[in-house]
Amino acid sequence: MQKNKSFHVREMIKDDIAAFANYWVASSFEHMQGMGVDIKKRPTKEQIEKLVTDQLGKPMENRKAYYLTWLADNKPIGNCNVNQFEYRKQAFRHLHVWETAN
Fold first, then answer.
1. Tens-digit pLDDT profile for the chain (102 aa)?
2. Closest CA to 74 of 18, 5, 17, 14
3. Is the pTM of this model over 0.70?
């Protein structure tokens, strides 16, 4: 019998950014294609890390994106982020699981 896992969601912190970026640069072509990602436009790991880092800590009304981290047993396993973010007007949500064993 599998033990019960605890699940939590919190704002992304700097310690989560490397796993988030690795998901984008290490995922297979097929996985990216299945999500509709144009591989030719995919940023580098460093660009992804800078993009996320630049948004953390900004006042909500000044952000262009917002990131949440999902945790299972306190281990980051995925994220939810919004982009095309206009404070109190619109946002497009994306959900990703980095650790498929969970």
1. 466 689 999 999 999 999 999 988 888 888 778 878 888 888 899 999 999 999 998 998 898 889 999 999 999 999 898 888 777 888 777 776 776 654
2. 5
3. yes
Tokens standing for residue 80: 């939810």
Domain boundaries, the chain: 7-97
Query: Using CA atoms, how far apart are residues 17 and 63, in angstroms rounded to an integer?
Result: 17
Using a 10 angstrom Cβ sphere, with 0-12 exposed, 13-18 middle and 19 or more buried, the burial of residue 36 is exposed
Longest dimension (CA), the chain: 47
Write the DSSP assignment of the chain as a string of letters: -PPPPPEEEEE--GGGHHHHHHHHHHS-HHHHHHTT--GGGPPPHHHHHHHHHHHTTS-GGG-S-EEEEEEETTEEEEEEEEEEEETTTEEEEEEEES-TT-
As assigned by CATH, the class of the 7-97 domain is alpha beta
